[in-house]
Amino acid sequence: MNTKRPKRLSDTDLTDALATLPGWRLEPSGDGASALARDLDFADFSAAFGFMARASLLAERMEHHPDWRNVWNRLEIRLWTHDRGGITTLDVALALAMDQLLS
Hints:
By secondary structure, the protein is an alpha+beta fold. The protein is 40% helix and 22% strand. It contains three helices and four strands. It has helices spanning 11-19, 45-62, 89-102, and strands at residues 25-28, 34-41, 67-71, 74-79. Strands 1-2-4-3 form a four-stranded antiparallel beta sheet, covered by helices on one side. Strand 3 (67-71) and strand 4 (74-79) form a beta hairpin. The longest helix is centred in the middle third of the chain and has 18 residues, at 45-62. The protein is globular, with a radius of gyration of 13 Å. It starts with 10 loop residues before the first helix and ends with a helix. The relative contact order is 0.25.
């Protein structure tokens, strides 16, 4: 359960965080802030949906939900904290947790 407000990352913190997140990049979010972004390709729809189901359980526990889009075997993920206006420690934690699901 996320009981405290996550820290918005400075440019330096964001650079350091990206070094620990291979495959993730910065991209504009839907509301003009920066977002962590990653696109994934799976073997088929079932594999993509299975990952989304497992990731959704993590996101729910963290009380932090991704902006994502799925078309057949492709998943586009965007993470940013809307009420903080950018990328926070919570976004990095969710990205790391999703990476663990992939390995």
